[in-house]
Structures are given as C-alpha cells and as structure tokens.
Amino acid sequence: MRILAERADIIPQLAEVFRTFGYEGTSLSRITERTGLGKGSLYHFFPGGKEEMASAVLADIDDWFEREVFTPLLRETPENGLAGMWKAVRCYFQSGGRICLVGAFALDGTRDRFAAGIAGYFGRWTGALTTTLVRAGWTDRAAEDAARDAVLGIQGALVLARAMNDPALFSGAVDRLEARLRQPAPSR
Amino acid sequence: MRILAERADIIPQLAEVFRTFGYEGTSLSRITERTGLGKGSLYHFFPGGKEEMASAVLADIDDWFEREVFTPLLRETPENGLAGMWKAVRCYFQSGGRICLVGAFALDGTRDRFAAGIAGYFGRWTGALTTTLVRAGWTDRAAEDAARDAVLGIQGALVLARAMNDPALFSGAVDRLEARLRQPAPSR
DNA sequence: GTCTATACAGTGATAGAC
DNA sequence: GTCTATCACTGTATAGAC
C-alpha cells in the first residue's frame, strides 16, 4: 500500500474540479480541498501551476478517447467501432450527468489557452468518425456532415441536459443520434 | 445628445465581456475597461454587483429571443415562424462567430447561480418550437424530439465551431438542422 | 452620475522546514 | 513528498468627494 500520491492519481480529481467550476472558477484552494493536497504538493507535481494542471487533465481526456473511441473506430469494423463509440459516450458522460470539459473550455476565453488541444480533440473525433462512415459505405461529403452532426449533437445534448437539469434528455438525444448514423445508405 | 450613460446602454457591452471571458473570468476591471465606466458608476446601475450585471444580461437576451423568436413562432404561421427563427438564429449568433451565453453559463458552476433563467430560456424555446411543429402536422412525440434536437444542435454547433475555430461549421450545421425541420411528415 | 480612494478577502505562486 | 508561512497582486465591494 502506498500513501504518497502520484501525479496520475490526482488527475481524475483535478478533472472533476475543473468540470464543476470551469477553468477560471477553479481556485487552488478548491483543488486543495478536493485532493487533500497542499499547494506544496500540487506545485511539486505541476510546476506550471493551474495551467499545467488543466493541461494534464486535457491530455488525460484525450488519451482516454484516443484509446476507447478513436482507435477502435479506425481499427475495428464500422459496426463494432460505432457501437463501441456510443457505449463509451454514454458511459463517459454518465448518461448526461457529466459534461465535456473540452467543450466547456471551448466556449470562453479558456479556449485560447488550450486552442491546439481542443481543436485536436474534436478534429480527431470527427475525422475518425468520418473515415468510419466512409468505410461503411457513405459518400465522403455525407460522412463528413454526419460525423460533425453526431459530435456536435453530443455536445449540444450535454448543454441542454445541464441547462434543463434533466440528464434523461441526454440519453434520449444520444439514442436518436445513434439511430441516425445507423442507416447504411444516407438518403439525404 | 446625451453623455451620461443609461443602464440599458451598458448591457450590450456587459454581454460582450461575459461572452468573451465567461462569468468567473469576467472581472470588474475588465468591465471598466470595456465600458469606460468606473466602479462607482457600475455599482450605481447594478447595486448587486457582478451577479446583478450578469442577471440583467441574461434577462436582456431572454427578452430578445422572446420577441424575435418565441412569440413569432407561436403567433405566425408555422412556415413563417420557422423561417424567422432560423434567420434570427443565424443573425444573432453571427454565423457562428458569437456563442450563446446562456449555454455557456449552463456548463459550469455558473448554472446554479442562474438556474431558473437558464432553464426558462431553453424551456420556452423548445416549448414554442414543439407547439409550432405540432401545428405543422407533426405528432406530439416527434415534434418534441425534433424541437430538442434542433435547439441542442444549435448549441452543439456553436461549441464545435468555436472549438475548431471555424465559424463556417456553424452555418453548415444550421442549414442541415433547418432542412430536417422542413420535412412536413416526419418519417422517423 | 461619475470619479478616486480604500478596505480586505482571496488569488496564484514561491521558499524553506521537515 | 508534504506542509506552513509568506509573497505580491487582483478580486469584489464600499464610502465619500465632486
């Protein structure tokens, strides 16, 4: 058993704080409160301070999606890749109870601080999804539009579910998004 | 000509500051910088400080949508109401160059501060849109789902457009959302 | 109505003891 | 690796002169 913390142990807790309060709303004291670690320990792991903490969280999210969503999308059959994506999305966002930190960061001045990471995350997601749909028989143009609509639909569903304080709204929207991607030959 | 400011004159400037930096990222000094008004004047108009300023901005946005979108949706023919909504949406969000402050506030701890206003805005929007679609011949269930999908699609398009720094992405998505609402008899 | 001056808590960050 | 003490600074908010 280990008592001393490791950097990797802290990141999920950091993520939760940033998700709750946003980048600007997250203070070191709130982080200390949640993690139980003093500023000394925090700055030991993240010499760059709050910005490095948020950056590490973003990288961690990126890794998770790369491993659980983007890679399966490209490596497995389109059906399996898509089924895995929707399952992962439902799980990760806890059926609408958890927001997308990358999307939240994108909406205010925080975006400029992490522009590359944010654009990369969404770019790789829509890219992998487009490729998958093309492999499933969609035309390039229809696949690109549908991929964007799916990703943006997930983000919008998170916004609306939180705004209305109704997580079930997310689940319903995701069901419809999934169904829309399942029709093999796009009629639009 | 009037030199002294009025409360109503300041609100659009306040809105822009909040949109740029988010609620937590907006400081009185940034507001002073943008409006040219000292703290004395600011607190003269908004005794409740920053929270009252944001509240006034939210109420102003609400009024605008009520007047330009929700009421026309309910008062005019479904076709005219819908056409007006899409035109207003494109105009208001400046083809993807401007985010939705209500949606942005919904994503972090700011939501709890303005929960009623945020839920009311989205509730009246999806409500008016649902009613309009029912009047246009949709079934209740299909109308409600489609209304939510449209509103959530707009929010998601704003997130994705800003994340990818590509306003055109918003315009394309809105075109598809509009087209999806135009099919008179929902096949889904 | 607008300004300046000011109060004071909280901010991110650093240094150094252990 | 973790803590406490402390730093300079900015945050919101108030008081009062004009």
Describe the structure.
Two copies of one chain form a homodimer. Chain A has ten helices and no strands. Chain A is mainly alpha-helical and 188 residues long. The first copy, chain A, has one domain (7-182): Tetracycline Repressor, domain 2. Chain A is elongated, with a radius of gyration of 18 Å. The N and C termini of chain A lie far apart (58 Å). The mean pLDDT of chain A is 96. Chain A binds a DNA duplex (18 and 18 nucleotides) through residues 4-5, 27-29, 37-41, 43-45, 49-50.
CATH topological fold name of chain A: Tetracycline Repressor, domain 2
Q: Sheet bearing the most strands of chain A, described?
A: none
Figure out the total of helices of chain A.
Answer: 10
Give the domain tally of chain A.
1
What structural class results from the helix and strand content of chain A?
Answer: mainly alpha
CA distance, first residue to last residue of chain A = 58 Å
Strand fraction of chain A: under 5%
Structure described in brief:
The structure is a homodimer of 188-residue chains. With 188 residues, chain A is mainly alpha-helical.
List keywords for this structure.
homodimer, 188 residues, mainly alpha, Tetracycline Repressor, domain 2, 10 helices, DNA-binding
Summarize the SSE layout with pairings.
The structure is a homodimer of 188-residue chains.
Chain A: H1 7-25, H2 28-35, H3 39-45, H4 49-75, H5 78-92, H6 101-107, H7 110-113, H8 115-135, H9 140-163, H10 168-182
The structure holds a DNA duplex (18 and 18 nucleotides).
